Each structure stands twice: as C-alpha cells, then as structure tokens.
Input
Amino acid sequence: MSTTMMAARMHEVGAPMVLEGVLLPEPGPADVRVSVRACNIVPNLANILANWTTWFPQNPLPALPAIFGLDPAGVIDAVGEDVRGFQVGDRVYVNPGRHCGGCKACRRGDHINCTSFAFAGYFGFTSTASEMLDRYPYGGLAEYMVAPQYALVKLPESVSFEHGARFGYLGTAYSGLRKAGVGTDTTLLVNGISGTLGLGVALYALAMGATRILGTGRDRDLLERVRALAPERISVFSTKDGAIDDWVRRELPDGVDVHVNALGPGAPHEPFIQGMKSLRRGGKAVNIGATAGEVPIDVHHMMDQQHQLIGSVWFTAGEGEDMAAMAANGMVDLSVLENVTFPLEKVNDAIHGLENRHGGFSNYIISPSTN
Amino acid sequence: MSTTMMAARMHEVGAPMVLEGVLLPEPGPADVRVSVRACNIVPNLANILANWTTWFPQNPLPALPAIFGLDPAGVIDAVGEDVRGFQVGDRVYVNPGRHCGGCKACRRGDHINCTSFAFAGYFGFTSTASEMLDRYPYGGLAEYMVAPQYALVKLPESVSFEHGARFGYLGTAYSGLRKAGVGTDTTLLVNGISGTLGLGVALYALAMGATRILGTGRDRDLLERVRALAPERISVFSTKDGAIDDWVRRELPDGVDVHVNALGPGAPHEPFIQGMKSLRRGGKAVNIGATAGEVPIDVHHMMDQQHQLIGSVWFTAGEGEDMAAMAANGMVDLSVLENVTFPLEKVNDAIHGLENRHGGFSNYIISPSTN
Amino acid sequence: MSTTMMAARMHEVGAPMVLEGVLLPEPGPADVRVSVRACNIVPNLANILANWTTWFPQNPLPALPAIFGLDPAGVIDAVGEDVRGFQVGDRVYVNPGRHCGGCKACRRGDHINCTSFAFAGYFGFTSTASEMLDRYPYGGLAEYMVAPQYALVKLPESVSFEHGARFGYLGTAYSGLRKAGVGTDTTLLVNGISGTLGLGVALYALAMGATRILGTGRDRDLLERVRALAPERISVFSTKDGAIDDWVRRELPDGVDVHVNALGPGAPHEPFIQGMKSLRRGGKAVNIGATAGEVPIDVHHMMDQQHQLIGSVWFTAGEGEDMAAMAANGMVDLSVLENVTFPLEKVNDAIHGLENRHGGFSNYIISPSTN
Amino acid sequence: MSTTMMAARMHEVGAPMVLEGVLLPEPGPADVRVSVRACNIVPNLANILANWTTWFPQNPLPALPAIFGLDPAGVIDAVGEDVRGFQVGDRVYVNPGRHCGGCKACRRGDHINCTSFAFAGYFGFTSTASEMLDRYPYGGLAEYMVAPQYALVKLPESVSFEHGARFGYLGTAYSGLRKAGVGTDTTLLVNGISGTLGLGVALYALAMGATRILGTGRDRDLLERVRALAPERISVFSTKDGAIDDWVRRELPDGVDVHVNALGPGAPHEPFIQGMKSLRRGGKAVNIGATAGEVPIDVHHMMDQQHQLIGSVWFTAGEGEDMAAMAANGMVDLSVLENVTFPLEKVNDAIHGLENRHGGFSNYIISPSTN
Output
C-alpha cells in the first residue's frame, strides 16, 4: 500500500483548497482508518473557511495547512489493537465530534459537553479545543482519515455513502427533536423546513410520531415539495404571507408543543420571535439553526407560560446508532435526497458553487476515494 | 357553627380591601375547607391588585368582589365525601394552582401546564382560566377557604403555619432548581439571592447538594447575611462592583452549571444577560424571576454551547410533598425566616407597608383565623 | 329519553349474566355518559367472574349485582358541568382505571399507583379499592356507562369502536414496552407473541422502532402469521423446538435488550426463566403476562449483569393519547385484528365460547348500543 | 526513581499472596500512575481468590500471577500526554471498572453495561472481559498502579485515603439508591443494614432525603448502632424477632417505596422474599447484595402491583463525582467508619483475619505506599 494519499488542504484562511499528496496516517490503538467514499459539503463550509477567524475568534480552526471535511462516510481500512466491534471492511459514518475524555463532563459520559469539544475537520467550540484538533487533524476531504472508534456509526447496507454523509445535518435535527421531547402526539412548528436542516427535522419528526408539522419558509415550490412528503400531517406557510404565529394559532389555537428554528446564517429575527409566540403553555423551542445576533426574548412570558428555549448542536454517537437503525427499519426514507457528487479535484467548485440547490433536497458530496 | 365568616375583598381594581362578612363556603365532594391560620403577603401582591388588568390584560383576575391571598396554610375544618388521606384537624399548605382536569395536559398528569391553569386568590394564566377562578373563588385572606384535595400538602409539626405560608415562593425556587437538574456536584449563579425568591434558591440549593453557590444582589449587608448561611459554599458579589460574568469566570473559569434569575419586577436586563454569559458549555439557565421586557439573547451562542433557558412558574403538588419532607428531615432550615404577622384587619397596611423588609429574610403574614 | 337502559349484570359469583333494565346513570360534574358501542370480551374475563374471589380474595370485585366490562368504546351522550375538552358526540375509549385523587401517589400525578386503584367493571387492586368501584359502578356491558373525564381517550376517525375496545390489551403492551425503554435500535424477545397481549407487543414494538423482535409461542401457524407482519424484523420460534435462550443466543450472541413476558394464565415457568437468561448485560425484562406462582429467579445473576424485572399492569391516560395518535398517524396498523361481534344478549355465549380464537388476531366484541 | 515496585501477587488460585518486586508500570497516553495509599480489603475478597473459578467459571480472573485489589485510593505520580483535568499530586479514588470503548453500550456512554466490563484487580463479568483485565492488569495491592483517566474521582481534602478506599462499597449503595429513585420523601427497607454495603445504604439514603429507613439484620447491638446515626428517621428490627414484612406493615401499612437487599454471600432467601412483600403499590426493589441461588418470586403479584426488581452492580464515574461532592459538602459523614490499617506485608493476614469486624463500621485497609 502506498504511504501517501491525496488530500485537499487549506493553507491560509480563505484561500482555495490545494490538492496535494500527504502522508497516509496510521491509526492509534483505539482508532480506525477510513477510506472516505463520501464527504458532505455542508452549506456553511464556505463561511467557516473564509470568515470564521473573524466572526468567532474564540472558536479555533485546525492548525494550517488543514484537511477540512465535517461529514464523512466510508469503509474501514485499518484498525488499532484496542478496537472492538469494528473491523476492516465495515461501512461507517464518522461523527466529527472529538472530546478530551478527562474533564468532568466526559467522565460523566456527557461527551458532547466536553470543555474541549471540537469538530474534526471543521472547528473547535472553546479555546482549549485546539488540543482535540491536534489529536485528530483529519477531515473528510482526503482519501483516508483516522478517527477514534467512539465516533463511528455502522451504516446499514440500505444507507448509501452519500446518504451516510448527510448524517451530520440529519442528526442535528434528530437530536434537537429528542431534546424537545418530540414523540407520538407532538405538534411542531419548523422554521426553515425546506432547508438542509429543516428537511431533516421534517423527516425525523414524521418518524418519531409527530401528528402535525407546521413548516415555514419562503419558496412556495420547495415548501409544497416538503408538504408532499406527508400531506395529511404536514402543512406549510410562506413567510411572505403574514406572521407565523397568526397562522399557527389559526391551525392550532392553543399553540404548538415544539418550535424548531432551523434557519441558516443571515436569517431575520422575526421568524424566531414569532416561533416563540407560537408555543402552547409548557411548550419548548429548540434552536439548531444559525440565526445570529441578539434576539429580543420576552423572558417574563417564558416564565409565566413555562416555555423552554434549548440550544442544541450536533448529536451523540448513540443518537447516530438510532439513526442507522431508523434507516434500516424503514422509519426514515432518505431516498428524497438528491445526490450531486464531485470528485476531490472539484472541491473548490463544490464549496463555492452551491447556488443551484433545491433547498434541503440537494445533497452535495465529494467522493475522495473509490476503493 | 356560624354560617358566615370574615373576609377581605377587593371590590374594584386598585381599591383597598374591604373587611366584611360573607357566606361560609361548603366543600364539594373532593374538597376540604381550611381554617386559614397564615397567608403570605407576597411582595408582588400590590402590583397584581393595582396594575394587573393594565399590564397583563390577557391574564384574568378573579371576578370582583374577590377574596385574594395566594399562599395560605391552616387546619382542615371540613372534608367532602370523596376526600381520602386528609381529615379534619390536619395541618396543611394549600397550593393555589387549579387545573381543569380534562385538557390534554391534565389527562397526561401535567396539571401545571393545563390550558386553563390559574392561581386561586390571585389570577389566571390564559383566557380560559377564569373558569377555574369561578370554580374556586377562594383566596387566603379570609377566615376559611375551600380547596380541592389535590392541592393540599400535609405540613409536618416542625413547620409553623407562618413558614408553611412561605411554601409558594420557596416552592418556586425548588421547582426551578429541579428543572435545571441541580443536585450533588452542581455549581450555580443566583441573581437576586437576597430577595424573597433568591433566598429560597439558596436554601434549597444547599439542601440539594450544590457545591458552589455564587449569589449576586445590591445590598452588601443582606448579601453577607446570605453568605453566612454556609460560608464554605456560598460566595456573594454586589452588582455595584462590576460585571457578573467577569466575577463568575474568576471564581469558576469554565462557568457555572446553572444560572437562576430570581430578580423581582423592575430589574434591569444586565444581570440576566451576564448570567447567560456565565454558563459553562451545556449549562442551563432557569428564570423564576419577574424581569420584564424583551431581553436580547444571543441564540447562536446558546446553540453552539448547548445552553438552555427554562421558564418556570410555581411548583407541583408532588414538589410540595418533597418540601414538607425536607423540612421534616431537617434538610432545609426555615428558621432563618423572620415572621412579621398582622391580623386580617391590617391587610391594607400589610400590602402597602412592606418597605422595611430585610430582603427575603422577612416573611409578611396575615393571620385571618386563630382556631 | 328513556330513564332506563339494558345492562348485563352478574348477581352471584360465577352465575351467568342476567340481561335486565336498570336506571340510566347521570354523570357527575366531572363525568361524561357514554353510549357503549363496543366492549371487549377479554380472554381472562371468565376467570375473573368465576374464580377471582377464591384466587385473589384481597382484590375486591364490584358490589353485586354488578355490570362488568373492562374495555369499552363509544360515543359521549351527556357531559357534566366541569367537563372540558369533550362534548356530546365525541368518539372515545374509556380507560377503566379509577383512582382516589387524594393519596400521595395521586397528588404526585402517578394515578396508576394510587393506593385504591381499581378497574371499573372488573376488580380492584387493594382492599381499599372497593371505594373506587362504588364511586364508578359502571362497566361496558350495558347500553350506557358513566366515566370520569380523566379516563377518556378521544378516538380518531380511523379507529373503529371495535378496535378502540382493544385499547386495553394494546395499551398494556405499549406501556410495558415504554417502561422497558424500547425504542429505536432495541432488540427484544416476546414470549407468547401470538396471543392477545403478545400481538400488541409486536405491533407497538414495530412502531417504536425495534430492530429485531424474537417471538415465541407454540402454534407454528399463528407464529408464522405474526412473522408475516414484518418478515425482515420479526423472527419466531416454537417452544416445542428447544430452549428459548439457546435460540436467542444463536440469533443474537450478546442477548436481547428486552424480554417481554406476555403469556396468559396457566403458562409454565420455563419460558419466563429462559427469557431472563436471554438478556444482554444491562437488559430489562417486563412482565405484563399472567404467569402465576413463584418463579425461581437467579437474583445474583440479575445483580451481576444489571438486569431489571419490571411488573407492569395497564397504562395511563397519557399513554392512551399516544396510542390514539399512533393509530391516526398510521404508525400502528390495527387492521390485522379480526372483529367477531355479538349483541349484548349473547354475552354469556361470548364469555364462554372463545375457543375458536385465532390467537391474538381475534377480537371478541359485545356491542351493547347502536345509537 | 526506581524502575521496580513492591506488589502482592497471587500465583495460583487460592494460594497466599506473594510479596515481590515487579516492574514499575508506565502510563499510556490517556492513563495516570497512582501511588496507592490505601486499598480496601473488601469482605468478599477471600471468596473471590479461593472459589471464583469454581463458582463463576464464566467470569474470568486476571491472568496469573495477578495483582488484586479492588478499591484503591492514592496520589497521582505520573500522567500520560492526553490526560486532561488531572495532574501529578492530585488525590484520587480509582474506580476499578474498565470498559472496551467500542461496543454499542460504550458508544452510547453506558460504559458500565459494556459487553466486556471488568473490575481491574478483581474479575470480569463476561467471557470477553479478560481483554480488559489484560489491558489494565493492575490492582491496588501494589505500591503503584496504572489506571485510565476515565476511572478517576478527585478526592476532596476532607476525605482521607482510607475513607476514599471505601468508595467502591459506598458507591454500590449510592448507585442502587439512585436506580430505585430514592430521594426526598422516600421510605425504604434495608435488609442487612449493619453490614459493609448496608451501612452505606443508610448513610446515603439519609443524605438523599429518605424520611423513613427501616433496617434489618441479626446483631441487635450493631443494629442499635446504626439506628443511633439518626434515631428520628431510622428504625431497626432483628430478623430473630419475626417476619420482616409483618414488621414493615406495622410501621407503614401501605408498605415501603423501596426495598434494598444488601445481604452478603450465604444469606438465606427469606429476607429477600419478605422484602418483596413489603413494597407499596408501585414500589421498587434493588438488589446490590450477594444473595445466591434461585429465589422464588411471585411475578404475578409484581405485575399486579407494578413492582420492579433492579439488579445493580457498582457505580459510574459520574456517581463517584457525586460522592466526592457529597463528602465535601458534609452531606455524608464518613467519620463513623473505623479504619483498621495494615502494611502491604500483612496482606494475607488481612484477607483472612476479618472476623473481628464491627459489621460495616470496620474499614479494613492495606496501605501499600506512603509517599
């Protein structure tokens, strides 16, 4: 086997990726090496690469030159000596979350709240997170990557690598719904339902038993396409047509059990505020979107009505297992996602050329390795 | 027995209470009648009486003339035929929460989120809540009141009626701490720690095992008095001395597990905002205070750091049982509360003359009945 | 409207039901009256009527002459003045569980563990339960019955009265699965999978996301019929062919997450014992069946392997709401149940003539009222 | 520093420990090395050493010659490069639980239910557990041991090494109480309350808020000593004086919320059976004791009354953190434990000479290292 591999690396903030040969990494005792068959080009990637150090200086990028790539799926190619439950040839999704293993949250098993939590191939969430990025300086935009066994989700045969590489955004939706207690008999409002996050919310809320899903967005054609997934349970509304809370109260006078914000960066604040006003007494809002800035929140009303506002980022390895099971069971149908696949050489085009998306239905994939 | 009783009633919004004889109410099948020995004059009462219909027109007052009185304790004097587990002579706290019994939340046992939830003797939380106020038009500012058995908490001998009549504000603190998951090994920030709500937060957080309680307020003497409750676990800081989050990060660089807002009406927004900034990754804020208006919240930061903001009002009957047990067990020491007791005739003085409080340490009580 | 109705009543333990005219009951303030369209003749009814006072003398029957009938569905015909959320004409399932409202469990909202819990139209669970049977002496084997609003589940249009009258046994399955934490990615063993309880376990476990359902029974044809519900997820095994735990370990070497005992009265102990041996480390057993006598349990093994054994009877009103939502959502398909319907006059035949059941697929129904 | 250390090792099953010099172990990247100041000689150790391979052949011992020692506390002496949150000089308890990190339970953060779970220095729980014992072949009966950072609990200054070395049995009690939902307002029965496990149950149940603790045992003097810990909350009963359930029903007619079995190996079955009969409707039994053999359990009664029987072994690292906090807070007073300390050379005497225990009050400690 070759001792090098092809990787796309960013050498300076904002510069295009450079395709180059680098050393093939070796797995540590509890690690595996994965041949990356698909890596999602998440909508936010261009922002991260160009603006992160300016917008969020407290959240470190990987040391440059760096291999980015948040959401990879592939085949295990080598395993460390302490790896159990996985073997060469297994098809896996690689959760990018990395944790330190020693802080109080980690020792309590709450790894996603590690004080040094980082996304390998993307960025870290605290100032100490760069240590995690140094420990695992591998993203999905390379032929191979090394990852710890704790990050792996075994993909069922029925899930393609392209759909597996969507697990990050889908899992963000799933985890948000779980934190808000969505289940049988829940009603919910989803702002941004036709986007990459919002479509995942719709798919998992259906699988989890929601009785009514009220979705908003702007593009009426995309909204209609979401509604067609389950016309008897999903209703849609364009924000061009009025205030969201007025519409919700017409549909459900007591309000919804759950409000999910799934809007992307640059979204206005009104949908968020109107979503808060759409909750029933005791209802919960969960924010998985990228709405930025300070949103004016009526905290007295939240107190009076026992509302909760839950921030949720990403998902746990256990939630990834759930998702694989739900795909295998047929509870979630990923076939509505349209794959658009590029080879690794086209990475810069892919990052910057996502204008023609069909909202969340489009699934932009780099396929760095084919064997 | 007489067929009338003395009651203080408000005949017009904002008018003083009128002391008058009214019909002695009879308990229904699942109700008890309580001889009210103590009723708390909660700090917010003057506001409710004078300004509620203007400030919160959607939240109905009881039909006038009305017997107010949120937080009563007394002795059972008569029981309906379906009452089980209580008998004449039992000492009880009467939780003012009333629910409809038929809405979806009620049938799920989540009575506090009833679509018609109301505080007997105070106000309702939704437009349909007046129905509950009509069903139970009895507050604690009368010699007797009728209440449903579901609202009762049996008081242990070690809890005086005066301290029992503080259970409402204490329970608000306790329930807020529970919703935020406070327990052994928790660190928390309490804004407004020396007030009526905040002192309850301190007392119950100690009992529940919090390791570090960081309390803020303005009055340094009162703060010091709170700190003296458990100097090795409580630290205090006057907001006159700087930003709260700077202080918290000096004490606990990773931030606190929980931020409790216990400030009263009219509080500025800064402590709330600084409290949100004081949370560790994965931390939770709980709002039991009366901070009003729209507080600017950085929802992107909440998402990134998995923060939650939990609105919490009042507490359940089961939580009341916990509180009675904790008092009986000696886990919570209520002897720090200083009772200031008035007869029913002095009710108007008591409502408007609370300027000389020692913060939350003062416990202003009306004692309508003595037998 | 007539002031009488037809009812089937038992006048002496073990005697046949007598069809007779009785006074039409009036609903109390928080009650409704239901025109009973369907009442399930549960397999165990003949046992209850003939042998209960001998077998379980501590568990009281209703006062004789009594209207039995555990599992009714029908249409609301009158409502009390405090009823909210239901109105005349609503289609409902009537949960037979009755609670006192005043004991500690009730005041905590844990009504099913009320110290006086009783099944209206069936029997009580403790010596004080006769009080509940006196409060609601109405079962489903009459044209009308009175029930408290807390017991009602609104039936969606897609659920027939005959299927609604199966909610009791289905809900027993559903609640057992919930208590054992069954969800996405769970594997389970169901002993007695083709019986009235076991089939419900299969249907709800599929809806809740179980990946593997291993079912046992005796009759190979019935087992095969269960397997055909979802051949890629359900496997079956006849206890005539060997030990259950040997089979389970061949299918899943680490064992199952959950073992459900759904066997009826008179079942041997071996399947239960072999089910306990089939659990993975950390697995849970839930007993909803009627296996009687003292089963030898290796409690040291349970401790070492962190096994739990959970007794579960019936289900809450909230779980009933879930079930109605799951039926409306299409998550559970009740069309596999074959209704066999009798008029009220044939009640004695129905109780004693259930030999020709197709296991749990048969649904024996009395239809006392048709308007 | 020397490259060797003194260790007590067993070379053959049942043979006495041999004191000998062995290579000083080096920590891996995520490990620490601990200078062992105290190691508990748990009452069951002699059984494990002599009889384990006969009694429980499926549960592997460490490869011989082996360093045993289940419950160590000491000072960190060296740290691996990936260790965060701990440094040289930290005082720690070393949880002996070791998990694989890759099985489904591990990836869900449920490490104690790992399919290869093992106690370092003691034994493994499944056939694949020997792999974990090989990965960490270090018990506390040596001057130094290597352990993973995930197993560490930082000891507060107020906890001596001798008391820290009791955390294993104390934590077993604490975790069992948590699994049974013990908290404020709970009543419980503890069989074996004066033993090593049972005394821990009493101490933590008090701290967690239990209102009534009914304890049984045989020795009336020891029972009285337990009762004296909190005479207003603890009652005791000698099994020489009658049936346990009769006594419980005299004290609490509805039964207890929780029954804890804390009896050691060789205990008769009657207390267990009588404990099951002592539960209230909805009550829970938790088995942390070593009662062996097949106990006859009335599973129909468990179903009817919604009883649960929970097997619980050991505790998580997070629960260890709780315990350290509770000791620091003063919620649990460990000063009732009487330390009896031996040097490492006396290990064989200590293992076999524990006859003069004062029940659970005696704390038998080996102190292998003093610097």
Notes: The longest helix of chain B spans residues 167-179. Chain B has twelve helices and 19 strands.
